[in-house]
Amino acid sequence: MSKTEITNQIRRLRFEHGEMTQQQLADKAGVTRQTIIAIEAGKYAPSLPLAFRIARAFGLPLEEVFQYDNQANVPPTQ
Amino acid sequence: MNRAQKIAWAVVITISAALAVSLVAVGILTWYVGMPRALLGFCFMSLSGFGGLAPLVFKKDPGAAHADERDELFHRRAAIAGFATAYLVFGAACMIPFFVLGPKAMVPVRWLPTIYMGAGLSHYFVYSLTILSQYGWRASDVEN
Prior knowledge:
The structure holds two protein chains of two kinds. By secondary structure, chain A is mostly helical. Chain A has helices at 10-16, 22-29, 33-40, 48-58, 62-65, and strands at 6-8, 66-68.
């Protein structure tokens, strides 16, 4: 599956939050561990409610966890 | 590998095995009794029904959530692909005899359940393949 335009800091934040495991984060966000793995790897762009739940699990605002890659939508210059 | 992948693999393997056994049976029966009685070999396709037992065999995944929005998305896409395939199979089963045999030919009614079963099997086969292609064909859920 191709990479999404959404980047995230989940992996770094997990380690900064007491080496939180993917399963612990999944349980807090109410999703499966595979979904956390896919989001971390940039293979799946979460819905807005899920993105908020993940950000809330870290106690951070959404934009500190997820970033939108603006350059991905810019057409190449001739 | 999650439960959906395991079930999908079981369905793909079961249907493929049933198809292989059926084709061998039809080949052997063609040699001994000839067509069209050799088509009885396709009775072995009923073995694919064992794929329906897969949800009873594979336990639920660990963790609080067993399915989420990503799983729903994958299953929805797989269902669309499965139904599209079943529709094409049913359409082909209706139109190919029409064009090959002509509009005045008649098809025995007993073929209708077979066409229905073929469309259903193709649905489950493509559904499972689509599930596997989205999740990945192998286990890739290593903690890192």
